[in-house]
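Worked Example 4.2. Consider the chain below.
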Amino acid sequence: MNALATAVDAVVQAQVGRTFPACSVCVAHGGRVVLEKAWGWLDPETRLLPAQANTLFDFASLTKLVTTTALLALLGKHGLGVDTPLVEIVPEFGAVNPRGIDGGQDPHSKDHLPTPAAMEGQQVDVGSVTLRHLLTHTSGLPPWRDVYKAAGPAPAPPGQPDPLPHPARWANALAALVQYPFVAPPDGVVRYSDIGLLLLGEAVARLHASGDLEAAIRRQVIDSLPPGELGFNPVGSGMKAREQTAPTEDDPTWRKRRVWGEVHDENACGVGGVAGHAGLFGTARALAAFGLRWQKEREPFGVPAAVRDAAISEQATTGGVRRGLGFALKAAEDSMAGDRLSMASFGHSGFTGTTLWIDPEAELVIAVLTNSVYYGRHSEAYARTHTFRRALHDAIAEACEG
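Applying the procedure from the previous section yields the following structure tokens:
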């Protein structure tokens, strides 16, 4: 076993069954894959289903990178840019204008939060919100709202007929999305927002000839990656059997089942499993292949070179959080990317325990998939995810430095 494999194995093995039941890692260095391995079990209680390199994991917010890529590739075809107001593409967004401000909802407790005193009585000109605001999370839209409750009833288990078809679920959700109050004006402050990426997904759908988000993402991105290793609703679409996907959290209140073969995120699940902010499942190999395109190519997936450069350079920063266009950039302190990757590094994380980091200076792409939310989003196990990510990225970077 070489130094890289030894270093990765030591970090991951120490956390299997402790921070997550299953993990898959793919590392590319110098433009080629140098490590691909999986650890753990999809069924940690019975241990009949070992994780494998072709196991699909719930990408969670890594979906945002694919949505972003599709959008940036489509804009130029319509003579549009990132400073285009959202209402030019999704006119319904301006139906309630101006719109008020409240405190939003906590994404974990789902409690409604009080309106900050400084925001009381303020209103937002909805027409001033641009695609750039959505891409940099500076729109002032709420981080989270319970869109799934507006979308319809809890969905059927994967592979069974759903009580409400996807188009109806999305129509219900969009009607709610274009009315939610803001939590601030689009003032340049980074406030991470799933709501903004849900709306960005609708923009992608409308810019594509199909008028459908899943078709747009498939044709703009997925079709040029390893076949059968990236997609939405893997069980329902026939891409993989449930036993080939990594399960996530037990949901005793809404779905009333362990989430397995369906997207963990409630809002993505509620709208039918296809959304701009979450919903994709894939392998570490497919994720690394996506990252390699962004690392190596001047025009990845048809994104113009100048737009690519802007996407991976700082466009907004708040309190040490640095954002490009869709991409997160490495923070100077306590970065989930660790300490050894360069400050030119860009990537993203997913709530289920996934990350993609790309260091163009080191020609390094690190795709890490886990299901650390398996033990519960409020568990001590999940709380260790950040420390694990830092340790793993540092170990990989150090092993590849020589």
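Residues 1-402 form a domain with the Beta-lactamase fold (CATH 3.40.710.10). The chain has a mean pLDDT of 97. Compare this with Example 4.1 before moving on.
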